[in-house]
Amino acid sequence: MCSKRCDERLALKFLLQLHLFLATSTQGHSERLVTALSGSNVSLQIHNLPKNCQQLTWFYTTNQKIVEWEFNKTNYFNFKFKDRVMLDHQSFALYIYKVQKEDSSTYLVRVLKEAGDEEEWKVTLQVFDPVPKAAIKIENTRELDNNCDLKLSCAVPEQSVRYTWYGDSGPILKVRQSAVLEITVTPSNYSRFYTCEISNPVSSENDTVYFTLPCKLARSSGVSWTAAWLMVLVLIVGSLLT
Fold it and tell me: Whole-model pTM?
């Protein structure tokens, strides 16, 4: 007859065996990352699916099914993806049309194999809107002792963007990831232009301002061309009237 201590050992052995069974019967695989522009079409693919699968299910979350394939029969669970998804019956890739930011999620693929055990894969989809147009605003230019205290900004309402500032010599590392460039320009670090680039993983925009002196903005070529053309136009009209 088994003692209480023996019963505890048997219970512990059973729990360990159960844990081992669960760990081997449902195998997880590392995540893949897919980025997409809102409004585009994407394909979520798993490249090492077993060939002997009896059932395959794509999930939007752990308990929200998108589509289920079983013995060549396909069933779509149209909730938020109504008429926007399609399962490729050869590769079992999931096609999503006109993706939206709300489609961003970690998608699961669960496969039931002939032996009865399951395998699971994860694909993370991140959907981004195009970044807004960049426009540099000159916050401050203050000249003092042949130097210039310069403050430029190009902030946009979108939060999930990256800011990068460039000058003559390349990226300005001291203001990495900042929407504001605040710098004291001296003869040794003078730059003829400053560019603000706004980007996310799928799109980018930039704007540039030019300087002839540390604190003096350059007139753009477009403005110069317009002024010259107006002067020519005035001369032509004047000659016709005389």
Answer: 0.70
